[in-house]
Amino acid sequence: MPVCHGAGGLAAQHRFGARYGTAVIFLGVAKILLGLLFGSSLELALDEFPETVLGALLLVAGLELAISGLKQSEEVRRSCFGQGWFILLLTAITALVHKTFIGFAAGASAVLVLNARWWAQQQFARRWQSIEE
Question: For 43-92, what is each residue's pLDDT tens digit?
Fold first, then answer.
C-alpha cells in the first residue's frame, strides 16, 4: 500500500476518506509514534500483515489513479483521439512486464506520437481549407 506523498499515496489516502491536510499530519504523527514506541519489533508485526490485503488496497489505489487519468479534459481526449484506454493499458502492461520506467516511457511515447499525429492532421485540414477557399 503506497503511503508516501507521491501520487499513489495521495490517491489512496483520498480514496479511503482523507480530504484535508490534517489526515496527512495525523498519518505522519502516527508513524512517528509507532516507530518510537515499537522500534524494530514493529517490522516483525508488519511482515505478518497479509499480502492479499495489501494487494487489494494497492489495486484500489491504482484504479483511483487510472480513473482520474481517464477523466481528462475534452482537449486531451481529442488530441489523443480518445485513446486513453490504450495508453493506460500500454503503460500498465509494459510496466508490469518490464520495469516502471520502461512502462512510463512507453506511455509517454504513445502520447507524444498520438499528439504529433493529431497536430499533423490539424495542420493538413487547415491547409486543405485554405486551398479550397
Answer: 888 888 888 887 887 787 777 777 776 676 565 555 555 677 788 888 88
Please give the model's pTM, rounded to 2 decimal places: 0.49
Angle at 2 between CA 85 and CA 43, to 5 degrees: 150
pLDDT in tens, 11-22: 777 777 888 878
**Half-sphere exposure of 87 toward its Cβ, with a 13 Å CA cutoff?**
24
Cα(106)–Cα(90) distance, integer angstroms: 7
Chain centroid to Cα 98, Å, comes to 17
DSSP string for 67-113: HHHHS--HHHHHHTTT-HHHHHHHHHHHHHHS-HHHHHHHHHHHHHH
Asked whether 31 and 49 are in contact (CB, 8 A), the reply is no
Q: What is the distance between the alpha carbons of residues 90 and 7, in angstroms, rounded to a whole number?
A: 19
